[in-house]
């Protein structure tokens, strides 16, 4: 995969188990710009969803809100203003 390339998983749809309304998220694989990291994206649409990635500091997988056109992280308050997709309960 090339940097910033997104590959669609045909027919790949997931739902959060705590979501009674079963909002669908479409599965994508994303190659990061730097290094060999790949993220699993759960996208509400072509722009917004969640990223499952390996946090290099903790060496644990984390799930974070993701917006395709952002180039840098937002503070939590700004993120909540932009978020339009289902918010899972953790």
Describe how the helices and strands are arranged.
Elements: E1 6-14, E2 25-31, E3 38-43, E4 48-55, E5 60-67, H1 76-82
Antiparallel strand pairs: 1-2, 2-3, 3-4, 4-5
Q: Outline of this structure?
A:
With 90 residues, this protein is mainly beta.
Describe this entry's structure for a reader.
The structure is a single chain. Helix content is 8%, strand content 42%. It has a five-stranded antiparallel β-sheet with strand order 1-2-3-4-5, with no helix packed on it. The radius of gyration is 13 Å and the shape is globular. It has one helix and five strands, in the order βββββα. The N and C termini lie far apart (31 Å). It is mainly beta and 90 residues long. Strand 2 (25-31) and strand 3 (38-43) form a beta hairpin. It has one helix at 76-82; strands at residues 6-14, 25-31, 38-43, 48-55, 60-67.
